[in-house]
Amino acid sequence: KILVIGANGQIGTALVDSLREMYGDNQVVASDLFPAAEDKGLFVTLDATNVLALVETVHKHNITQIYHLAAVLSAKGELDPLRAWDLNMKTLFNVFEVSRELQLDKVFFPSSIAAFGDSAPHYQTPQETFLDPTTVYGISKVAGENWAGYYHKRYNLDIRSVRYPGVISYQSMPGGGTTDYAVEIYHKAVLGEEFTCFLKEDTLLPMIYMDDAIRATLELMEAPAEKIKVRSAYNLSGISFTPEELTRSIQEYYPHFETIYKPDYRQAIADSWPKSIDDSAAREDWGWKPSYDLKSMTKVMIEKLTEKYHLHIA
Ligand code: VAH
């Protein structure tokens, strides 16, 4: 069975649904610190910093794979660096150690474009390049990538990872990320409100629509092990756009929608990240190809959020 740690997070929420669709509801155990609002199937409360609790959960539910989606994200991590490092790494080591000891089949842990810093080329950022992350979150992701490679090489643990761009979804709100503006903006537009963006209008960032992010994750995890050449984390790209371009794509539906720009401390984080990603390694090794562009993502986001708020497109 599959255990998803951080099941109530932005990616965890969508990932649990997709894993259940693929493998069956009773094959996926969702876990988080507290239950989600609405009951959505097999769930256990689990604090992944508690290794004994993790061992107990793995034994009790016959877990053979772990997807570790719990972490403190980039912006929030800067408010309490050592807590973010401690939580991100303690949970990661627990997952890697328990998976090694109990000989789990596969482990997924997410890296991020936050692994890159100012020394990496900002356009078409390559798979192999110098990593000098500017946030604690990014430092924890680079450390995680190196530890993943170590556990694979030394213990032959089948750990797989992708460097997610900013992930955009309607199912749940992200928490504490620098790319969160690109989710919040759609909610404001659908609710007929003005949006205040915490990044400058020309801040170009690599993003990905959740359906593509989840499909990439499942395709990576389903690929034969011998195809997985990268045991740190695969670059993954979806769509690169600026807040201005995103606003314009929304105005096709809401002509009077307005974004005002009030950059804050997250601007410096965004400026240190790639503007576009070269994901040719993922395309070559396991056939990755995104299917959403800005137009099709905006269409589905507005449709889904209109339903969610029980509104009807005018
Ligand atoms: C964040 N959404 O902003 C996450 C992600 C690349 C962005 O790591 O921290």
Automatic annotation (TrEMBL):
- Which InterPro entries does the protein's record reference? Epimerase_deHydtase, NAD(P)-bd_dom_sf, NAD(P)_epim/dehydratase
Could you tell me which Gene3D superfamilies the record lists for this protein?
Answer: NAD(P)-binding Rossmann-like Domain (3.40.50.720)
Biological process terms in GO annotation: L-threonine catabolic process
Molecular function via GO: L-threonine 3-dehydrogenase activity
Q: Which domain of life is it from?
A: Bacteria
> Pfam families under this entry?
Epimerase (PF01370)
Q: Domain NAD-dependent epimerase/dehydratase spans what residues?
A: 2-235
Q: Which family does the record claim for this protein?
A: Belongs to the NAD(P)-dependent epimerase/dehydratase family.
Q: What is this protein called?
A: Nucleoside-diphosphate-sugar epimerase
Species source reads: Pseudarcicella hirudinis
